[in-house]
Design a protein that fits this description.
This protein folds into two domains: about 70 residues, no CATH class; about 170 residues, no CATH class. It contains eleven helices and no strands. α5 packs parallel to α8 and α6 packs parallel to α10. It is flat and about 65 Å long.
Length: about 260
Amino acid sequence: MNPLRVFDGYPETLLEVLFALAPLLVLLLVFQGIAGRSALPNLPRMLMGIVLSIFGLSLFLQGVHVGFLPFGEFTGAVLSSVSYSWILIPVGFVLGFASIIAEPAVRVLNYEVEKLSTGSIRSTPILITLAVGVGFAVALAMARILYGIPLWGILVPGYLLAFALTWFSSDTFTSIAFDSGGVATGPMTVTFILSLAVGAATGLEGRDPVVEGFGLVALVALAPILAVLILGIIYRIQEGGSNPTPEKEEQRVETSGGA
């Protein structure tokens, strides 16, 4: 096998990325020309970052087309066709957990949360909470495909529970929770886990891949919301019913320092 075959179709993928990023670059230059009164800071580094982003995204998408999608569909089809197809459920949990750990957007969210909360909300608990939540969501999605559970029977109670939990969770974690739902459905999770679900639905007799294989992204978006809201309730109980804020963290640090 020629290893260079993995780059088949790469020029088309590179053009897609260029066309996708071009409007953002144009808007950046326009707003800089309108609102900017000075030259762009670190212009060489900025240009290098843009170039690296273009090639990084194009290489990632190329890897998705030649690696992630075929492997996910193959894995789902094989595991769903064996006599112990229930193995899809724990495998789904592990893959969902691992995909969130590797998700770049989740790393950015965790960094921003810890930075803006001045350390009162650590990134590690948020990361583990998101990973466990998405792991359970993917496991539930595999169970839905195996046993024919209707999607609305999961989503409607799930979102009703999410809105109910906002009354008990802290305001800070409520904001983080609903943002984390979108962050968790990033490129790593969607590309591999969605192809796994489609492959599993394809391998099961009497299952329509279009009906059963899709809907996973909705479950993945719901799971982090519920998980982070529950984490917010735990934080609120530990803080004595108050919200963790940067001001309170500074007071805690000053008090401990004075002691």
